[in-house]
Design goal:
Length: 290
């Protein structure tokens, strides 16, 4: 899977929706009068990735997300359970998070496969696995894949879920995308491997078997604890660390932002991204920057 472009839109939430509409209007002439926050941040990242690229009409769209449209879903639940009334039609329609991937395709004039994908704590990596299968199977030759999530707004939910202090992280919204092609020509980099070795011991065993020919950059998901990070650093003592969560802030599909930031910032190097879910399942993503 060869990376031909990347784009990221990451920042603190802004209350005024005009901010997002004005940002998106820099890349498309379409007007999204009823688009919500999730749709607009999806467009902001995808349009940055596609800008200036010759993208074929049959290019697929893979939108990966942990939570989908949080804002409108919360609004609808409030209307039903607190106000005891039917939800407003546009709020109700916008709870369907896969409308965002439709808007991405519409704004870029794409008619290829269109998928919205979620998998607990590992949505971006699992989405890449699905995309890899489709590329290997000859279903498609080109795709936009992104990780999109609104900022985590509930302190109690975050702390109960992650067992970490809410104040230790800057909560941001993110929309980070890659243009993936089967063609190596003019590629900026390559998704080399997506591996699910199991626990930490199996992860270390797999890493020992790898041969990296370029400087290594290592990055960690939010659930990888200090001892696990130290064990990996001992195995890769020369590796620099890309602490993208401290730098950019946290959102639930931040792994996509790590890859985009690595491609944007580093020269020729190998990225090893180590992620983990709540069951202790590790997933390794390796990316080569040409």
């Amino acid at each position: 899977m060869f990376i031909h472009s990347h784009g990221r839109f990451v920042g603190r939430p802004v209350d005024d929706m005009k901010y997002y509409k004005q940002d998106v209007s820099r890349f498309t002439t379409l007007r999204f009068r009823r688009a919500n926050r999730f749709v607009l941040i999806s467009l902001a990242g995808a349009c940055r990735c596609a800008h200036g690229m010759e993208i074929k009409e049959d290019t697929a769209v893979y939108l990966t997300t942990e939570n989908g449209n949080l804002g409108d879903t919360e609004t609808v639940l409030h209307q039903i359970f607190h106000n005891r009334e039917f939800p407003m039609p546009y709020n109700f329609i916008n709870t369907m998070s896969n409308t965002a991937s439709f808007y991405v395709a519409q704004s870029l004039g794409l008619s290829g496969r269109n998928i919205t994908f979620s998998s607990k704590q590992l949505s971006f990596e699992r989405g890449l696995e699905l995309l890899r299968s489709d590329l290997l199977g000859g279903v498609l030759k080109e795709a936009l894949i992104g990780g999109v999530d609104e900022a985590v707004f509930s302190k109690a939910q975050f702390e109960n879920k992650h067992l970490k202090p809410y104040e230790a992280y800057q909560m941001v919204e993110g929309s980070c995308w890659l243009l993936i092609r089967a063609d190596r020509k003019k590629a900026l980099g390559e998704i080399r491997c997506i591996q699910s070795p199991g626990d930490l011991s199996q992860t270390l065993t797999w890493l020992k078997q790898q041969q990296f020919t370029k400087p290594v950059v290592v990055a960690f998901g939010i659930l990888v604890d200090r001892d696990e990070r130290q064990a990996i650093h001992r195995l890769l003592p020369e590796a620099a660390e890309l602490d993208y969560i401290s730098e950019l802030g946290y959102y639930d599909s931040a792994a996509a932002g790590c890859v985009a930031l690595f491609m944007e910032r580093h020269g020729s190097a190998d990225l090893v991204h180590v992620n983990k879910d709540f069951r202790g399942q590790f997933v390794l993503l390796t990316v080569e920057k040409h």
